[in-house]
Amino acid sequence: MVSTDESTGAALYDLVIVGASAGGLSTAISSLRSGLERIRIIEASDHVAFPDLVGPNQLDIGFGEHATSIGLFGEDLVVDTNRLSYRTRAVLVADRHDDRSWEPGIALPDSDRIHLDRFDVGHDHDVLVVGASDHAVELTAQLAAGGNRVVLAASGMDPSKLSPAGASVLRRLERDRQATLLYRATPQHITLVDGYPMADFGDRRTPDLQFDHVFFAPPRVMFTPTDVGVTGDALASGRVWFIGDPAPDRPSTTAPGWQVGVLLAEACFPELDVAPVPSPLERRTKHVGAIEELRAEHYNATITLFEPTHSDLWVLRVEPDSGDTSYLPGQYASLGLGFWEERIDDAPDPDAEHRWDKLIRRSYSISSRMFDEYGYLTDDNGVGELEFYIVLVPPTEDNTPALTPRLALKRVGDRIYLGPKVAGRYTLNAVRDPAAAIVFFSTGTGEAPHNGMVVELLRKGHTGPIVSAVTVRNSADLGYADKHRELERRYPNYHYLAMPTREPGVPKRYLQDLLRDGDFDALGVPLSPESSHVFLCGNPAMIGLPKEVDGEPVFPAPVGVVQLLTERGFTIDRRNAPGNIHYEEYW
User: Fold this and answer.
1) Which domain holds residue 188?
2) Are 536 and 441 in contact (CB under 8 A)?
């Protein structure tokens, strides 16, 4: 219960926080956990940054209150608001306002669907939020809570620099698959198509996406002492703190939101034993339950199948706790495990020491089981699982892989992270003619997206020839060979060409040799730019994309499939220039 000072009539508090921002909520929660008992948050509006944190942490918030003055009265500070008066040992000004002078770094079309501030869009909309700060996380959380489908383009975001509340909500949004997070993407261009914003991310992995609304999260500027009526003697006391980046023209009691709570407690409450935030290594050695806590915090899916083709090659299926699993054959999704998980090898892992409590994420093409339990061609959309085809990546002098050596130790029932949304433009959208010749070239697990694409074509009655050719080191590396042979048996227009390059007694041939040696003519497959599409996934040396030099394409050595095809009149499929050579860019 909060007492009242009889001489002033002010309620007595340990700490008054002006503003229920992410930083304000973080400081309130950490201060309560550090031993402060009487904390009041005053918020001028009718909402807080993250309402889900209020109840579980029993935060005391005065809505519709704003500070009119902060002065010194004896040994204490007095905060007057438009409604009440508070006597307190310390004050944190956590309110910050949008920088109205800020402009996005790209030209924006004139549209009432592009916003630089808050706007009530209602619900059931596709929304893009652009930003890498607590403000961007706040917007994302509020829009997701309103029943919208949200993508956060957060290029350059460092979650460790967010406020603890912001970082926690960001993890929850990922874990619950309530928002799609693009940590490396930001729009390069925004245009209007039929009146709706179309975002071009300048990255083949992130397709052009159209939204109902786009929000930019401007940087926020620290409130000044004048904004909240801080008197000179109150400011000089060193017990009025501000959230913001320190600068010469700002009070010395200023600290960023992710750090201000600890510094304020150390300065104003010396009687508290404020423990510094433990390092990942300290968490690991001192807290035996840390790993299970981290798994519960980050993982949102369960491995339902882990089927080794051999010790270094696996087919696995993943079922998310919630959210959609629909996709187009050829697209990809992201999987993740924590640095805290054990490795199957003893390779040095320098990042693990400093990032022990962080997730490792990597995108993988979605594969297909090809046949259902009754032997029919499968339609995996709607089954609630996603299938992946993954090889163990060995360490080299230049690269220590982080994810697959940890994934190698997982089994059915283990937990894992699955990204909230599938993506990618490497699909069959360009195939319009059911009589066209469709050829898939892949190396190793690069055939994963082709499995579903082949099934999709056959399931929809494609009548033209379909060829899937894959090179691997040994026949044992063909995890889906038996299924492809069954497809060949059932469908006379389907051909599977498996080409092991290191099999004893088998001549070494590469995918390029199929084009050079006329193998398609022998199969009776008319491979021509007028009636064919070729899909390429795998080793970049096999694909052989050209670089543009002085406006002319320059192909790499050795000769790749793209060069051989362009010499026959094929063209590379580009975003704004459709072609008949389609390739998956990442490897």
Assistant:
1) 114-218
2) yes
Calpha distance 130→494 (Å, rounded): 45
Q: How far apart are CA 182 and CA 185, in angstroms?
A: 5
Q: Which residues pair with 499 in a beta bridge?
A: 471
Is residue 277's pLDDT more than 80? Answer: no
Using pLDDT thresholds of 50, 70 and 90, give the confidence band for residue 490: very high
Q: b/e string for 324-357 if b means 16 or more Cβ within 10 A?
A: ebebbbbbbbbbbbbbbbebeeeeebeebeebbb
Say whether the peptide bond before residue 465 is cis (omega within 30 degrees of 0). Answer: no
The answer to whether 442 touches 316, Cβ cutoff 8 Å, is: no
Q: How many alpha carbons fall within 13 Å on the CB side of residue 355?
A: 14
Cβ within 8 Å of residue 16, ≥6 positions away? 39, 40, 41, 42, 77, 79, 86, 88, 90, 91, 92
Strand partners, 371: 377
User: How many whole angstroms separate alpha carbon 28 and alpha carbon 558?
Assistant: 61
Q: How many whole angstroms separate alpha carbon 585 and alpha carbon 95? A: 44
Cβ neighbors of 356 (< 8 A, separation 6 or more) are 280, 281, 283, 284, 338, 339, 340
R_g of the chain computed on alpha carbons: 29
Instruction: Check pLDDT > 60 for residue 278.
Output: no
Are 213 and 228 in the same domain? Answer: no
pLDDT in tens, 185-224: 899 999 998 899 999 987 766 777 889 999 999 888 888 8
- Residue 476 DSSP label: G
Which residues in 405-418 are b (16+ Cβ under 10 Å) and which e? bbbbebeeebbbbb
Quick one: tokens of 432?
Answer: 């319009």
Residue 150, in any domain of the structure = yes
Question: Which of 300-309, 346-355, 422-431 is least confident?
Answer: 346-355
Pairing status of strand 332-338 against strand 415-418: antiparallel
- DSSP H helices, 75-121, are none
Verify that 398 and 512 share a domain, yes or no: no
Same domain, 298 and 387: yes
Three-class secondary structure of residue 338 per DSSP: strand
Last residue of a domain, one of 268, 301, 329: 268
Are 231 and 310 in the same domain? no
Across the chain, what does the average pLDDT equal? 89
pLDDT tens-place string over residues 117-138: 777 888 889 999 999 989 999 9
Residue 49, phi-psi category: left (phi > 0), alpha (psi -120 to 50), beta (remainder) = alpha
